[in-house]
Amino acid sequence: NMNKFLKYSQRAPLPNERKISYSQFSMYSQCPKHWELAYAKNLRTFSQSIHTIFGTAMHETMQNYLTVMYEQSAKAADEIDINAYLKDQMFNLYKEAVEKMGEHFSNKFELGEFYEDGVAILDWFKRKRGQYFSRKNEELLGIEVPIYHPVADSNDKIMMLGYLDIVMRDKRTDKITIIDIKTSTRGWNKYQKADKNKVSQLVLYKKYFAEQYGYDPEKIDIKYMIVKRKLIEGAMFPQKRITEFSPASGKPTRNKLARSIDEFVKSSFKADGSYNLDREYPAVAGKNNKNCKYCEFKDQPDLCPAKARIKV
To answer: Model pTM?
Structure first.
């Protein structure tokens, strides 16, 4: 479902364009070698976890609720069996991933625990919905609104493809808010909020959205809705299941990000959109090897010898 004005600003990909995602840029920013092996050499494997399954299922459930709320009424949204919807989503996504991966990566106890957490989040969300979404002053412009835009000015063959979880418009001020739902075990601490790699996604989407849809970036707000599975036991203060966080996204921040994504495109792709395999891509292990922790190539010395990894 999408507002008419957004529909006209979309175009189909051309055959000679290379589509990339924000996660590629994010991976490159952390460790160029990881990106080279995963994308330029196409060695990545399909892998899901209970966390990604739960995250996707929560997205679908909340997006479905909001669609009904804005297209019909809050009453109709409250009548959805939201827990059953979540359960179905989790079950189907898990089944699909197991078929693709050829093995189980969770069990009914863990799935059950995540589902119970989801029920608690949804219950909280329904009760506090008014703090986050109002029908009176806002309209829903779209769910999963596509971004398809040249990544950098230096190469029009490399296109960023992304989807915006929720796009709202304030009817009084004409301001747009791009919302990204992030599921998390215990919320984001100050280090996660300061992690440029984590928060730059929406900053970039704001820039591309403004350019693609012809909108003034100064009239676009961005925010992460951070959905928490676990609360602190016995805390003395009331805890929120959903917190909001808006990273800096003014012009200086956007320009700085544009420069680093431009550097990525110039050094990693050729003019025709093909991968640049003529350069060295350094392996960056990071402090305490944190970049290697979840890397699928960490135990493949033929692809990434441990002694060549830079520990900064």
So the answer is: 0.93
Q: Which residues contact 281 (CB under 8 A, 6 or more apart)?
A: 32, 33, 35, 36, 40, 268
Q: Which residues contact 237 (CB under 8 A, 6 or more apart)?
A: none
Residue 90 to residues 85, 118, 185, 225: CA-CA distances in angstroms? 9, 10, 17, 20
Token code pair at residue 267: 């050094």
The structure tokens listed for 148 are 């398809």
Phi, psi of 212, rounded to the nearest 5 degrees: -70, -40
3-state secondary structure of 88: helix
Mean pLDDT for back-to-back runs of 10 residues, the chain (312 residues): 61 86 96 97 93 97 97 96 98 97 96 98 96 94 93 94 96 96 95 93 96 94 97 88 96 96 96 95 94 94 94 84
How many angstroms separate the CA atoms of 181 and 223, rounded?
A: 9
Q: How far apart are CA 95 and CA 104, in angstroms?
A: 9
**CA 137/CA 290 separation, integer angstroms:** 44
| Exposed / middle / buried, residue 263 (Cβ in 10 Å: 0-12, 13-18, 19+) | middle
Alpha-carbon distances, residue 187 vs 211, 293, 303 (angstroms): 32, 20, 35
CB atoms within 10 A of CB 184: 17
3-state per-residue secondary structure call for 29-75: HHCHHHHHHHHHCCCCCCCCCHHHHHHHHHHHHHHHHHHHHHHCCHH
Distances (CA, A) of 112 to 49, 90, 95, 109, 262: 14, 10, 15, 5, 44
Q: In whole angstroms, give the CA distance from residue 162 to residue 20.
A: 9
Query: Taking Cα atoms as reference points, which of 311, 283, 312, 277 lies closest to residue 298?
Result: 283
